[in-house]
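Troubleshooting log. The previous structure file for this entry was overwritten by mistake, so regenerating from the original sequence record. Sequence copied from the archived sheet and checked twice against the printout by T.R.
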Amino acid sequence: MVDRILAINPGATSTKIGYFENDKLQWKKELSYSYEKVSEYQKIMDQYEFRYQDIAQYLKTKNFSAASFDSVVGRGGLLPPVNAGAYLVNDAIMDCLKNRPVLEHASNLGASLAKGISKEFGTSECEAFIYDPVTVDQMEEVARISGLALIERKSIGHVLNMRAVCMKIAEDKLEKTYEESNFVVAHVGGGSSASAHKQGRMIDLISDDEGLFSAERTGGLPLKEVIPLCYNYSEKEMTDLTRKKGGLASYFGTNDARLIEEKAQKGDEKAKIVLEAMAYQIAKTIGELATVLYGKIDAVILTGGLAHSVHITELVKERTSFLAPVYIVPGEEELTALAKGARRVLIGQEKANIFQEPAYNN
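Regenerated output below.
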């Protein structure tokens, strides 16, 4: 019997969809939008109707109709802290992501899009899921202490891809299960995060505002220097400086690491030192998380868009290979990770969680 699964991954200016039979990708499509188009909408959830219609129209061109899918799975949005794995899309999830998301983000559309497509194109038993939302929280209590009683450290990062590559390396390279392995993994791209995984649980995570800088985000900054800036810029301007205009974009006016790497190869000293600093910060973050696991690490993994850069990954490997073997898994396979997660539920390897919003958010 073949399980037919559609995976949906909404991004800031695109919606990626992929059709899978069991774990095998049959095709994928990226529906792209201009920045001007998405900027017309005040809230992310206001984009639902046009994104839904575009997916539905494309599926019809591929001759899909009612009863085509056994499951539809969307990328999980910014819910309150949740466990890892699959969640059945219910009214509580859709209401929370529409009206009370932790942050406005395109992934908040994933649950509603999956539910809508499952109703129109699914079998009578088709269920809609989300898998490994960005707010998966398995952090140990000691990791939550920030150093300021007013603030608790939170687990927000590239969970879907990081857990997926850990499972992949465990199976393909270590010939072990994820639950038997320890990893430190860094996802490096437009935004970057890193995490420590202990025997199937992500026990600590360094988010994109804490540690390593990325293509367009600053990572952690010296507070003594940041506090005066807050009096010269508005909250929105500070957010843009640190989350859209930081990192490589701050130094070069572009977040395209390929262009900056070309400059370095042609002898540009500024490009050389900034790229070395990026690799230095990635490696330092990996070293920090190695202490969480007492140095008992089966593998270090580099993934995300910037892992395509041999220059950066080699610099990181030079500083971290003493910890454990370093594996490079460039890019992201989020559609595949979503589909595999949904299929584990379909075949009984996992049980889907049921979301209930915490009382303090009601």
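The first strand starts at residue 4 and ends at 11. Archived copy saved in two places this time.
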